[in-house]
Amino acid sequence: MKQLMGVINLDHELDLLNELTYFRCGAAVPFAGRYRLIDFVMSNMMHAGVLDIALFVRRKYRSLLDHLGEGRPWDLDRKRGGLFILPPDWNDPSDVSSGEMQHIHNNQDFFERGSAQYVIYTGSQHLSNVDFCAAYDYHLKQEADVTLIYTKVDRLRPEHQYCTRLDVDESGRVTDIHLEQDHANIYMEMFIMEKKLFLHLAKQCIAHGESHFFRDAIQKNRGRLRIAGYEYNGYHAVINSLESYYRNSLELLQPEKYNSLFREQPVHTKIKYEVPAKYSESADVSNSLVANGCQIGGTVHNSILFRGVQVKEGARIYNSIIMQKCVIEGDAVLENVILDKDVTISKGRKLQGDVKKPFVVAKDTAI
């Protein structure tokens, strides 16, 4: 959509997934057998026809750069426009901005050169199938200064504790923004705003020494801005803790959950050419996601295996997430475990966590 440019702000997203974010930012964490968390919002923007997407990054983004490349899986490898990965620029001695305002200030040319009139601004921790075209049409219909995208959850979970909540009246206007714990309207850290107003508010925030756009430009000005709330109804998961990552991952083994995330529209990711998974006669696999390139000779139940995992004969895996190129030797037992990439579990080892607190092994580890 030529009217929308995308901004994915990773600057304020804390790396709270413990061992999984030792060597990467949260947006680059593998998910669902072959994806990264960043893929879902990137795909939503692609399906909306967004031609220019900028990423605000500050730390531990090497893995993210390797995954995104030039943006080809999302049709962003273009001569004009496309994908822009924008680390902070520290070379302006007159710059007084801080936090995410520093990204906006130092990359103002990205906004000025783009032909789009509106900005869709989002993070990466809320997984969804949001239709940004429908949200944009709603924004225009409401004649709003800014439209906040939210969802009403049926069940409040621990990961919702730090999520912002919205009060929305019958006309679709946001009447309050708060952190009341028993409130079900979860703000998904996504908003749409006219580019001109966006840059004006950012300039005001910088002049007053403020650093967080949503808090300082939108929430503090809710009495002066016309703020609309667009309700999203569809798959939604917040990945802001190790526990939420583990539970939401394994819930995809339920067909209705998996279909609600992947069947409505495809999710695009970096292409890797792997041979099909190979199962030996001794393999026993049930209710699991097994990616290409795996070699299975043991038992795998209720688990997710990423590309290239080897499960030797006699090994047993239950309720676990095994990432790329891990090797599980014979007679090893894993239950309620998360293994990051390139982990080797030697013969006969037993690792066991809890369904509420999985045992996690960092990448490139041998046990």
Automatic annotation (TrEMBL):
Keyword Transferase: yes
UniProt xrefs under SUPFAM superfamilies: Nucleotide-diphospho-sugar transferases, Trimeric LpxA-like enzymes
GO biological process: glycogen biosynthetic process
GO molecular function: glucose-1-phosphate adenylyltransferase activity
TM annotation in the entry: none
Domain spans labelled Glucose-1-phosphate adenylyltransferase/Bifunctional protein GlmU-like C-terminal hexapeptide: 280-351
Limits of the Nucleotidyl transferase domain: 19-176
A Pfam family reported for this protein in Swiss-Prot or TrEMBL: NTP_transferase
Keywords: Glycogen biosynthesis, Nucleotidyltransferase, Transferase
Family: Belongs to the bacterial/plant glucose-1-phosphate adenylyltransferase family.
Protein name: Glucose-1-phosphate adenylyltransferase subunit GlgD
Naturally occurring in which organism (per UniProt): Paenibacillus albilobatus
